[in-house]
Amino acid sequence: MNDADIETDAADRMLLQRMAAGDRVALATLYRGYHGRLCRFLSRLTRRADVIEEVINDCFWIAWQKAATFQGDSRVSTWIMGIAYRCGLKALRQHGDEPIQDEALYGDLAPSHDPGEDRELRDWLGKALERLSVDQRAVLELVYGVGHSLNDVAVIMQCPVGTVKARLFHARVKLRNVLPDLAGDPSMQLGSTP
């Protein structure tokens, strides 16, 4: 953890302490600070904006209620992401496992020379990610999108680090195998000869 991460976590811990004392301004501050990150993460689980907002609201309701029970065994960001992940899984059970929306994927990519190419790339990647399980998409986003360590992801997903590594490995293998198929170029498939 670098100095900025340590400072951010210390500020978040202070906000949790204030929330435990009933400070709604602290809740609003924490909510604003995490909203974008949670939207990005949850957009990998479902395409419905209403479900994403519902999950974020549920997450912060739980954080509000349990702020006093935060033990400090992990960073606050890990704790909040874990709550959001579990709320997201619950929402998926209620609303179904809907694939991620194309626009939610890599929406932060800078436009290229040809906007049509950018759209085609997003469609291609979106279709590939739809073939992954919810847990595989979540691991990819937590590690590569949000930047959590494997240990943090294990805490968030409440599973052993070995399970996180396996999900990440299988997600990468599956993507490596399906991307050439989706591109319609059999010569790009692994193990094929030109």
UniProtKB/TrEMBL annotation:
One of its GO terms (biological process) is DNA-templated transcription initiation. CDD domains: Sigma70_r4. InterPro entries: RNA_pol_sigma-70-like (IPR039425), RNA_pol_sigma-70_dom (IPR014284), RNA_pol_sigma70_r2 (IPR007627), RNA_pol_sigma70_r4_t2 (IPR013249), RNA_pol_sigma_r2 (IPR013325), RNA_pol_sigma_r3/r4-like (IPR013324), WH-like_DNA-bd_sf (IPR036388). The keyword Transcription regulation applies. Pfam families: Sigma70_r2, Sigma70_r4_2. Keywords: Sigma factor, Transcription, Transcription regulation. SUPFAM superfamilies: Sigma2 domain of RNA polymerase sigma factors, Sigma3 and sigma4 domains of RNA polymerase sigma factors. Residues 30-96 form the RNA polymerase sigma-70 region domain. The keyword Metal-binding does not apply. Residues 123-175 form the RNA polymerase sigma factor 70 region 4 type domain. GO terms for molecular function: DNA binding; sigma factor activity. Belongs to the sigma-70 factor family. ECF subfamily. This is Sigma-70 family RNA polymerase sigma factor. The lineage of its organism: Bacteria, Pseudomonadati, Pseudomonadota, Gammaproteobacteria, Lysobacterales.
